[in-house]
TrEMBL record:
HAMAP family found in the cross-reference section: TRM5
Gene it is expressed from: TRM5
Record-linked Gene3D superfamilies: Met-10+ protein-like domains, Vaccinia Virus protein VP39
Enzyme class: transferase
Gene Ontology annotations of biological process type: mitochondrial tRNA methylation; tRNA N1-guanine methylation
Cell location: Mitochondrion matrix; Nucleus; Cytoplasm
Name of protein: tRNA (guanine(37)-N1)-methyltransferase
Amino acid sequence: MNESPESAMFRPPINRAMRALDRSFFKKSVPLSAARILDNKQISKYRTELGHDLLRLDRMPAVRSVRDSDGQEAKALLLRPEVKPDDASTWSPKLSDLVKASQVSLSPYNLELDYDYWNYHDIMSAILPEAEQDELPTGFSIVGHVAHLNLRDQYLPYKHLIATVLLDKNPTIRTVINKTDEVGEQNEYRTFSYELLAGDPDMNVEIHEENCRFRFDYSKVYWNSRLNTEHRRLVEKFQPGEAVCDVMAGVGPFAVPAGKKNVFVWANDLNPDSFASLDDAVRRNKVHRFVKVFNEDGRTFIRSSAERLLKTDTHVKIHKGVSRLKQPASTVKPIATLTSPKTFNHYILNLPASAITFLPSFIGLYVGREEFFTPHTDAKLPFIHVHCFSTKSDGNKEEEIKICKEVSEQIGYEMKPGSMETEGEVQVWDVRDVAPMKRMFCASFRLPGEVAFRVAENESRIQPLPSKERT
């Protein structure tokens, strides 16, 4: 709403005692003036010339249909509240000239406003107690047709009001829920308990991200729309023909876009529902030639996937713009053939609450496999991108030191803040704020040779376990 002196005239009626939404309560008649245009062809011209006199209100067109004394319909321009039809001293010189020339005529006009006119913020400002309005509950996540609230305690008495208005004012939303616990607090799948506040109880959603489609039951898998930028940032680091191991892949926000870039991805998730949705996304987005999906424990998968990739031969032929309706791809000469590397170029560990504790699985990962890496070949040891939570401070310097210390303790090798290209250094990336004193980071570093080739006492290599795998 405009914050002009008369803006209060256009605010909705106030009812701080309302607990069940009464849409009929929000009706208001605002007395104004209308400048009837005698020649409809001049509307655009006069609208420009009378700019200072016109009513300028969000979501409210200035041009209206009115009827003259004979009942004939005509066009009129709504004027600011200060302009009075019977007081020429309130008219601008231009308006006075047009009236004297009989180009326009002024008359009273009652502007009728109702619930449909006002937005979510307007309605909630008229309902919630003023003491609760320092920060209205406007922040929420939209996942498909579901609006996901995380209401503070002071707003819980009004939760159904908030949800109902939110549903009314957002036509793409069909379901409003409120989180009742912390993500991952109750189980290892990062799902959360919630209550339905308004709308349809259907939690099966379809979303689009990075030109990819995902379908899943939001109540059974983890998804965070606010991580779209982080998904894109990491995928941009992967090059066509590289191999990526996505250890906690979820429904595939890293894996599927990477597959569209012709990156070979081994994507794993422990949650059977995530695994099923991941498999669906791989097929739905036609990246099955590049993305393999697995359903294993993450720690086991780090080691078993590295062992299996060494023994896997994957070749994908690339064709340029072949229309299968016109000509089968099998009859067209490929422009290139991509062969998967024998070792991963990147590992993603996107389980910020505990991913750092998975790092010991990289100790001795390539014992006896030194010949696969420099200086014996051009292949370098992989980058590891591990997400984590920490506190927040100006510049995040304290957090960088703290995260590097945690990484060092997990892999038994001293790591310091710096460039991920330099062995022994960690690049700490600020992903997003999670809570007032909690921030999500991504620590990226190249696996040090001393860690990858370390032979531990009583070393016993983890053998691949039977798993669900689909290609």
